[in-house]
Structures are given as C-alpha cells and as structure tokens.
Amino acid sequence: MRVIGLAGWSGAGKTTLLRRLIPVLVGEGLRVSTVKHAHHGFDVDQPGKDSWEHRQAGAQEVLVASAHRWALMHELRGDAEPELADLLARLSPVDLVLVEGFKRGGQPKLEVFRAANGKPMIHPNDPSVVAVASDEPVPDLALPWMQLDDISAIAEAVQALAVPVG
Fold this sequence. Notes:
Elements (H helix, E strand, L loop, with lengths): L1 E6 L6 H14 L4 E5 L13 H7 L4 E5 L4 E5 L9 H7 L5 E5 L8 E5 L15 E6 L10 E3 L3 H11 L1 E2 L2
Parallel strand pairs: 1-5, 1-6, 2-5, 6-7, 7-8
Antiparallel strand pairs: 1-9, 3-4
Helix pairs in contact: 1-4
C-alpha cells in the first residue's frame, strides 16, 4: 500500500481534483482509497437512527452494515485526534491511498495551488511537498509542476511519488 497527500488551502480545488483523479487511477486498474481530514466536527449519522442512538448512549464504536456497504464510527470521547499513520493502519489494503488534508503531516504531498485564492504556497516551508499542480505556472519552482487540469500527468505523478505506508 502506497500513500500520497493532496495539500492546499481551502478553495484550491483539492476535492475537485480528487473527484477527477480517482476514476483515472481506478481505470488504470488501481485499487484506491482516500482519507479526508476535517477541521471541524462532522457526522455521518442522523439523529433518530439506531446507530445514532447507540453512539449517544455511549458506545465507543458502532458498525453499521448492509448488503451494499459497511461503516465503522469511532467516538474519540475526549481522546486525542488520531495521527494519519493510525488511520492508515485501519484501512484495508489497496494499491494507493490519497490523503486530502493533513497538510502538516510528513507524507509526501502534491500541493494544489490556485493563484486567485490569494494564499501563499505551502511548498517553500514544507519539505514533504514533492510536486505542485496549479492553474498557472509557478516561477522558479524547483519541483515537478503540472497544470491543474492535466489529470493524466497528475495521475502519473501521484503514482511515481507515492511512498509505501509504514
């Protein structure tokens, strides 16, 4: 299992890129999983559902399963937020894991940059950024660069730059 991150400020286009990139990678025969970091509370459950009631009652983990999918919800209940390595260890083996967010983690990252965002680039201060995909060329860039809409080139780069988990 290999991993690479996509990092960038909000509005840079990380999620849009992932939506376009995943089908290309899967089309090449790769099994792909994703890990998404959320900076805020989120819920995959709905009040009134049995699984929600189980969590509200204090269950540490609730696993919901059907003939189509299963989902495991783990309540931290005051414990520290898990590190990316801990989360990756919980995934079933695949060929490639794409991580959205965790921009302060040490995994290699493709920086997704959009000049119109008005935010600074991440790579000058983060040695784990190994390439940049942006909407326009980046002057004096010492890293591989891809046009943000060149999904084939980005697919090649993430496969070449991903590293084994662990």
